[in-house]
C-alpha cells in the first residue's frame, strides 16, 4: 500500500476524471499484476481452495488497510464488492459449470459479462458467451 497504492491515488483520480469513469483505469490495471505476483490476490474466501488461506479475522485488518484508499485499493487486490460477494456465493453454492463460467473469470480479475455503454444508441450492450439463456421480465440473462 505504501509503495504502490497510496502514491498512486492522485493518478487514479486524475485518470477517472479525464477518462470514462466506467472503464478500468490504467493505474489499477498496472497494479493488479504486482499484487498478484506478491501473493496479495483474492485475499478473502476463508476455508476455500480459491482463497489465500486467510481466516476472516486475518482478512479483517487487511480490509481496514485497503479501506484507507477505498476508491481503488480493493480492486487492485481483487477484493472489491460486488465481485467478492458474488464469488463467495459461487464458491459455496455454485455448480461446477457455474464456477467454470462465472467464478474462474472473477477470480482472475476479469468480468465474465462485459458491458459497454452504446451512447449513440442509448442502450446497454452485453457480450455473453455462455451456452444457456433464460428470459426473465423481457430481458435475456445468461446462466
Secondary structure blueprint with pairings:
Elements: H1 9-18, H2 26-37, H3 56-66, H4 73-76, H5 83-93, H6 96-107, E1 114-118, E2 123-127, E3 133-136, E4 139-142
Antiparallel strand pairs: 1-2, 3-4
Helix pairs in contact: 5-6
What's this entry about, in short?
The chain is of the alpha+beta class and 143 residues long. 42% of the residues lie in helices and 13% in strands.
Strand order of the largest sheet: 1-2
Number of DSSP helical runs: 6
* Overall pLDDT score: 83
Strand content: 5-15%
Structural class: alpha+beta
**Overall 3D shape:** globular
Listing every helix as H and every strand as E from the N terminus to the C terminus, the arrangement reads: HHHHHHEEEE
Give the terminus-to-terminus CA distance: 37 Å
As a percent range, the share of helical residues equals: 40-55%
Your description of this structure?
Helices cover 42% and strands 13% of the residues. It has a two-stranded antiparallel ribbon with strand order 1-2. Strands 3-4 form a two-stranded antiparallel ribbon. It contains six helices and four strands, in the order H-H-H-H-H-H-E-E-E-E. Helix 5 packs antiparallel against helix 6. With 143 residues, the chain is α+β, with helices and mostly antiparallel strands.
Question: Which descriptors apply to this entry?
Answer:
143 residues, alpha+beta, two-stranded antiparallel ribbon, 6 helices, 42% helix, 13% strand, globular, disordered C terminus
Amino acid at each position: 500500500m505504501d509503495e504502490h497504492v497510496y502514491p498512486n491515488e492522485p493518478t487514479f483520480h486524475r485518470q477517472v476524471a479525464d477518462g470514462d469513469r466506467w472503464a478500468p483505469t490504467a493505474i489499477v490495471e498496472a497494479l493488479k499484476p504486482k499484487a498478484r505476483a506478491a501473493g496479495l490476490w483474492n485475499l478473502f474466501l476463508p476455508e476455500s481452495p480459491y482463497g489465500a488461506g486467510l481466516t476472516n479475522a486475518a482478512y479483517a485488518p487487511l480490509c481496514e488497510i485497503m479501506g484507507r484508499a477505498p476508491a481503488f485499493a480493493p480492486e487492485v487486490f481483487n477484493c472489491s464488492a460486488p465481485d467478492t460477494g458474488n464469488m463467495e456465493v459461487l464458491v459455496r453454492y455454485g455448480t461446477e459449470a457455474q464456477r467454470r463460467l462465472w467464478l474462474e473469470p472473477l477470480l482472475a480479475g476479469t468480468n465474465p459479462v462485459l458491458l459497454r455503454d452504446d451512447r449513440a444508441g442509448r442502450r446497454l450492450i452485453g457480450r455473453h458467451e455462455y451456452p444457456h439463456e433464460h428470459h426473465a421480465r423481457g430481458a435475456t440473462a445468461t446462466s
